[in-house]
Design goal:
- With 349 residues, this protein is α/β, with parallel strands linked by helices.
- The protein has a single domain, classed as 3-Layer(aba) Sandwich (Rossmann fold).
- It is 40% helix and 19% strand.
- The longest helix has 22 residues.
- The relative contact order is 0.15.
Amino acid sequence: MPVVIVTGSCGLIGSETVSFFAEKGFDIVGIDNNMRKSFFGKDGSILWNQKRLQKKYKIYKHYSADIRNENLINKIFKKYATEIVLIVHAAAQPSHDWAAKDPIVDFAVNAQGTLVLLEAFRKCSPKSVFIFTSTNKVYGDRPNSLPLIELEKRYELPKEHQYYKGIDESMSIDNCLHSVFGASKVAADIMTQEYGRYFHFKTGVFRGGCLTGPVHSGAELHGFLSYLVKCAVTKRKYKIYGYKGKQVRDNIHSFDLVNAFYHYFKDSRCGEVYNLGGGRFANVSVLEAIEMCEKLSQDKFDYEYIDTNRIGDHIWWISDVSKFKFHYPAWNYKYGIEDTIKEIYEAQA
């Protein structure tokens, strides 16, 4: 049977990938050592999701392996070498704030870990497809230089602006402030492109906006929408960091992203890059998300405002997904922002 290797297999995107491809008949090899717990504490642990996947999918084989461990990763890849058709690399240290506390671990996980996987891919299964879940943070704080207009509950671009429908892949990632996390993801992003362009392998880089869904183990330092909804359900106080709570994020449901992976897998390209978030179809400001949660809970949302924003954080981000839709016109969104928030809320309530 064809094998799909998924790193970060018990996280949000990893577990969605496991489910999606398992239900299409692929054998799944998952790699996840629950580093999320060490990053974010109990809120970030994915053990519950690992148990769920192992119980639901008998074809799911789990390895509690560190992606920085070259010997162990090579052993896993060699074991399935002739059967591997796809690698979805979704493991990461995903937090701005955590990265600043320990840049060495952040870079080792995000950059070195990606290189270890790319080399295993090159040595063991070079005819397969390699998908990397990158981030819009590779653009650093450059989007903050856009001529944003302050509205009542969000920042917005003028409708005549070239990026009004979203930021596309032409925006430069150079000469701006990225955050330590953003810099480590840039290294992994560029290296994945290089394995496609230099070695002519089928590698795809997906620069996500906010990725979300009901199985997200959201924590204060990562997982904006999931954690915000968790605070609404548990009555925990939420902290808004800067920008008056009017910062805008596009949010793509994990199913919609993994469905995009599937379309790319079926007709893959070498070293391609796509911005893929909720776009104009699914985006929200922090204040708007709080309002939606209050409507669902029929209760006042408890939050405090901290005037200092996170370093390198975006004021406004909406992805232009036109390039991906041009290459894969059969792909489309299934979940709007209200659908997604409601599904997360019902999963946590």
